Amino acid sequence: MNPDDLQRLVTLHMPFGKYKGYLIADLPGNYLAWFARKGFPPGEIGRLLALMLEIDHNGLKPLLGPLRRP
Predict the structure, then answer these.
(1) Mean pLDDT by 10-residue block, N- to C-terminus, for the chain (70 residues)?
(2) What is the rounded distance in angstroms from the CA atom of residue 45 to the CA atom of residue 48?
(3) Is 40 helix (H, G, I), strand (E, B) or coil?
(4) Cα distances (Å, whole numbers) of residue 7 to 1, 18, 38, 39
(5) SS3 assignment, position 8
(6) What is the DSSP string of 2-17?
(7) Pick from 51, 59, 60: nearest CA to 24
(8) Number of Cβ within a 10 Å radius of residue 3
(9) DSSP three-state, residue 48
């Protein structure tokens, strides 16, 4: 994992779908799990969604708080 990926999770917005416009870090766990079942999209967005699923699944979302912009 690239350390910059964590910063991207709190700055990159979902570009499509039901949660278009939401920060990747704010996507609900069930939506991330849906992608895991159906297949993550290719490229950076898919990689970040998979990373966010792992973070969410392991209860580590609070660790992203200090990375958020005020």
Answers:
(1) 91 96 97 97 97 97 89
(2) 5
(3) coil
(4) 12, 23, 26, 23
(5) helix
(6) -THHHHHHTTPBP-SS
(7) 51
(8) 6
(9) helix
User: What is the model's pLDDT at position 2?
Assistant: 85
pTM above 0.85, yes or no: yes
- For residue 13, the cross-strand partners are 23
The answer to whether 26 and 11 are in contact (CB under 8 A) is: no
DSSP state of 14: P
32 touches 52 (CB < 8 A) = yes
**Letter string b/e over residues 31-59, b meaning 16 or more CB atoms within 10 A of that residue's CB:** bbeebeeeebeeeebebbbebbbebbeee
